[in-house]
Amino acid sequence: MFRRVYLDNSATTPIDGEVVEAMMPYFTEKFGNASSIHFFGQEARSALDRARHQVAEIINARPNEIVFTSGGTEANNLAIRGLLEANEKYGKHIITSAIEHSAVREVCQDLEKRGYAVTYLPVYTDGIVKIEDVRNAIRADTILISIMTANNEIGTIQPVEEIGKLVRRFREDGKKIWFHTDAVQAVGKIKVDVEEIGCDLLSLSAHKIYAPKGVGALYVRRGVRLHKQNIGGHQERERRGGTESVPHIVAFGKACELAKNNLAETAARLKNLRDRFEQGIGENISDFEPNGNRENRLPSISNVSFRFIEGEGLLINLDLQGVAVSTGSACSSGSLEPSPVIRALGKNDELARGAIRFSFGANNTPEDVEYVLEVLPRAIENLRRLSPIYTKQTAK
Length: 396
Ligand SMILES: *Cc1c(COP(=O)(O)O)cnc(C)c1O
Prior knowledge:
binds pyridoxal-5'-phosphate, alpha/beta, single chain, globular, Aspartate Aminotransferase, domain 2, about 400 residues, Aspartate Aminotransferase, domain 1
């Protein structure tokens, strides 16, 4: 029986009912501008304050260390560009990883064109950077390390606490160096604590945790100076100009509160679904390779390369049967480039092109997983029958 199963929760999530309920009044009767002095403004202001507390709490920060942005992409831009511009005199070298989200990777590539040097650390076959590599990459002119908390395609968790310790040790020796981490995928699935990580800047996004698109935040540790990127307003304590979208921020705050309260339960639920799924593909499908470290990863993501097929073909085939997944490949200049993340694991062209991300979320049920386990092996078998390399291989 046909059914729709959304397994692309790392791309975005549906909005939680309680979150919708919390935000609605701020579209209508509570519509004030939070910068206004009158009653309407104060009502909006106090809603912003409450949301700021809720967002701060999920990462163990102080409310005044939270800067609301239009999302994770803007938070990453503000973190990296803002920090570099405010501290130009200390150096022009950045350390990042080979598997960052495009909102970090492409900012770094752009900076390379403008006089910065960037080191892209390898992640080896398991998708995790090595702390020795981070240490060895630090130069006299290094001012920023930007390494994500957890990867959005393969879910691997990076050694961010060790990086934080390393950065603090360098700083105690008088070096000017800061640490940014993109925690957009990690928040709500694993514990994210800015004191334990010891980062200076941390990016969050609302729409990955059951709140609307178009809102996020940057955590800025007290005392860290940033050069403002959005100029033309005094909002966010002079760190980000522009009238705050109060309904979206209220929603984000509520989503953080729910995510924090339900963290252990959510993680266990996702892990159960994911593990059952992986057990099922192990039993019913041949010629595949899981991508990334099996243990040190988010409970929500399963990334697998299926041999003898194109990921895009499988994605379209699954979509026809109601199952939504993603490949991570990007269409650049008309040709389909395999995902840079899968390439960074050292996978060959064939395996990189056959990679599929299944990402689980709050709305998935065990029945959803069983349905996918029913349609997936058939879809793969059908595609492989059309593949000349597969036919030759099985005829041997
Ligand atoms: C989704 C995502 C982003 C971008 O966040 P937006 O709010 O969509 O701009 C950044 N980093 C990671 C790891 C993501 O998964």
